[in-house]
Amino acid sequence: MESLFNDFSPGLFIMQTFILLILIFLMVKFAWKPIMNSLNERESGIQAALDAAENAKKEMQNLQSDNEKLLKEARAEREGMLKEAREMKDKMIADAKEEAQAQASKMIAQAQESIRSEKQAALAELKNQVATISVEIAEKVVRGELEDKKKQLSLVDKMLGDVTLN
Amino acid sequence: MKIVQKSIKLLTLVAIALCSFQSFASDSGKKDNNQNDGGVVDTKSEVDKYIQHHIQDAHDFTLFSYTNDAGERKHVGFPLPVIVWTSEGLKTFMSSKFHHDDNGEEIVTAGNVKLAKIHGKIYELDAGASKVDFDAEHHATNAHKVLDFSITKSVFGILVVGFLMLFWFIRLARQYKKKSIPTGFGRALEPLVIYVRDEIARPNIGEKHYRKFTGYLLTVFFFIWLLNLAGLTPLGFNVTGQIAVTAALAIFTLIIYTASGNKHYWKHMLWMDGIPVFVKPILAIIELAGAFLIKPFSLLIRLFANITAGHIVVMSLIAIMFVMRESLGTVGSTGLSIVLSILIALIEVLVAFLQAYIFTMLSALFIGMAVEEHEHH
Amino acid sequence: MYNLIGAGLVVIGAGIGLGQIGGKAMEGIARQPEATGKIQTAMIIVAALLEGLAFGALILGKGA
């Protein structure tokens, strides 16, 4: 302890205090303050740049998701349109088919109708002709038969017997 | 072109330095015996004496000494100014006037005062005395110490480091004006500055107050670190191993944390909450002793002791070369000494940084305690 | 003489203490590697305080 105090040099202590005081003053004023200011400035600049980059990234992401959404919508729309078209096509085909069917059946029906009416007409004419011929034949026969009274009577009888009263 | 200019500058400096060394050497030629660091250093006691001499402050800057063929002791280095406050006021002369005498034999007369240098300290002889008398314990009986403001080796080192710091960091500050990233040596300094700010000041003092104290902490950190490193060079500085220097540093920290202590700090120290009233004064005394004695004392002793111990260890290991020559042979002792001293020197490089870091760190911690805000009260 | 023995005892104590600090810090780091920085800082502070004590004892012992 004694040697410690013996080693202590008050002059050196005063010189050191004095020089350190000046050194701290000069360093703070001319070195540390500008250095710290520039460092802080730079750091805040870097921070701002990072923030900006982050923002840009976020924006980009937003944009991308927007794009995706749009794309999705477009795709859905296309899908819808395609589906609609297909449906329409199917419907048209079906409609056409149906119409054709109807037309065809209508035509068939018409044809059948006309065939039937033709047939009817033909039959009627045939009947008429047959009737005329029959009548003529009958006239002839009747004329021949009716030359004799007996024959006439027996015929009437026979005919009456044939007639069923319905 | 720049390189040429630089080398010319360097050559000029070297030339000037050599000239002054030479003049100093020839100046000191006439007086050669009775010197503390003189002659052969071979035995353990001589080594001890040499180391003791080294870790003390010196009044001149000696790089090395040798004995020439004519048997004269030559010192290569340069003298430093002696400034002392004597009974007749301030006296100034160059230390070469003592002719490397350290035993009080060379008496320098400045005006009417007679001055002698004994073991690195300057004594003023009492009136009428013409020669220093010593008692049995080698204390001067007819002389007393004077207040010594000399530019000693330590003060010289402090000035050199101070100018280096100013030069480097002002240049770094200027570089920032042009662009935001420094070039050259500034690129090595910048991470250190950021390290001190972000690892020492900010976490220990707190986000709110650290800006005010960063300047002091940075100055102290680089000051101590550079002086510690200067102590490892062959220039032989032992500035941070001077108790006066570390005491001044510790007192700066003491003043700063005492002056910036807030209400809570003082309340916590003088009248602590939550304890019985009769214990409060006792605790206050303990806390005051802690704040005003133990904290600065531990700061100054730690730095002083670490650096001094480091110097003693390195020099002792170098001395193995001479002391163990007989038992190990010349090659063996030299090899052992070189290996060990290189290892220890490497550790000392680490210690140089560590002690600067710890001093700054503890200063920041003490300041942080003083300015800490207690929201929970 | 006795003061040197006393200083030696303090140094032994400080050595044990430093060992404890270092060992516990290592344990802590091994357990929580993410807290390495904080543990190191705390370790260095405590080690520095202890070292100050040891040096104080050495100087008091040597000079007394």
From TrEMBL, chain A:
Subcellular location: Cell membrane; Endomembrane system
Main subcellular location of this protein, as a coarse class: membrane
Gene3D superfamilies assigned: F1F0 ATP synthase subunit B, membrane domain (1.20.5.620)
Annotated function: Component of the F(0) channel, it forms part of the peripheral stalk, linking F(1) to F(0). The b'-subunit is a diverged and duplicated form of b found in plants and photosynthetic bacteria. F(1)F(0) ATP synthase produces ATP from ADP in the presence of a proton or sodium gradient. F-type ATPases consist of two structural domains, F(1) containing the extramembraneous catalytic core and F(0) containing the membrane proton channel, linked together by a central stalk and a peripheral stalk. During catalysis, ATP synthesis in the catalytic domain of F(1) is coupled via a rotary mechanism of the central stalk subunits to proton translocation.
Family membership: Belongs to the ATPase B chain family.
GO CC terms of this entry: endomembrane system; plasma membrane; proton-transporting ATP synthase complex
Protein name (database record): ATP synthase subunit b
UniProt KW keywords: ATP synthesis, Cell membrane, CF(0), Coiled coil, Hydrogen ion transport, Ion transport, Membrane, Transmembrane, Transmembrane helix, Transport
Transmembrane segments: 12-32
HAMAP family (UniProt xref): ATP_synth_b_bprime
Coiled-coil ranges (or none): 36-136
GO MF term list: proton-transporting ATP synthase activity, rotational mechanism; proton-transporting ATPase activity, rotational mechanism
Subunit structure: F-type ATPases have 2 components, F(1) - the catalytic core - and F(0) - the membrane proton channel. F(1) has five subunits: alpha(3), beta(3), gamma(1), delta(1), epsilon(1). F(0) has three main subunits: a(1), b(2) and c(10-14). The alpha and beta chains form an alternating ring which encloses part of the gamma chain. F(1) is attached to F(0) by a central stalk formed by the gamma and epsilon chains, while a peripheral stalk is formed by the delta and b chains.
UniProtKB/TrEMBL annotation, chain B:
Cellular localization per UniProt: Cell membrane; Membrane
Database matches in Pfam families: ATP-synt_A
MF-aspect GO terms: proton-transporting ATP synthase activity, rotational mechanism
Principal location: membrane
Signal peptide: 1-25
Known function: Key component of the proton channel; it plays a direct role in the translocation of protons across the membrane.
Name of the protein in question: ATP synthase subunit a
Organism per entry: Kordia periserrulae
From TrEMBL, chain C:
Functional description taken from the UniProt entry: Key component of the F(0) channel; it plays a direct role in translocation across the membrane. A homomeric c-ring of between 10-14 subunits forms the central stalk rotor element with the F(1) delta and epsilon subunits.
Organism from which the protein derives: Kordia periserrulae
Positions bearing the site annotation: Reversibly protonated during proton transport: E51
Family designation: Belongs to the ATPase C chain family.
Keywords, sorted A to Z: ATP synthesis, Cell membrane, CF(0), Hydrogen ion transport, Ion transport, Lipid-binding, Membrane, Transmembrane, Transmembrane helix, Transport
InterPro entries noted in UniProt: ATP_synth_csu_bac/chlpt (IPR005953), ATP_synth_F0_csu (IPR000454), ATP_synth_F0_csu_DDCD_BS (IPR020537), ATP_synth_F0_csu_sf (IPR038662), ATPase_proteolipid_c-like_dom (IPR002379), F/V-ATP_Csub_sf (IPR035921)
Domain V-ATPase proteolipid subunit C-like: from-to ranges: 6-60
Parts of the chain that traverse the membrane: 43-61
Name of this chain's protein: ATP synthase subunit c
PROSITE patterns (UniProt xref): ATPASE_C
Subcellular location per the Swiss-Prot or TrEMBL entry: Cell membrane
Topology within the bilayer: Multi-pass membrane protein
Gene Ontology CC annotations of this record: plasma membrane; proton-transporting ATP synthase complex; proton-transporting two-sector ATPase complex, proton-transporting domain
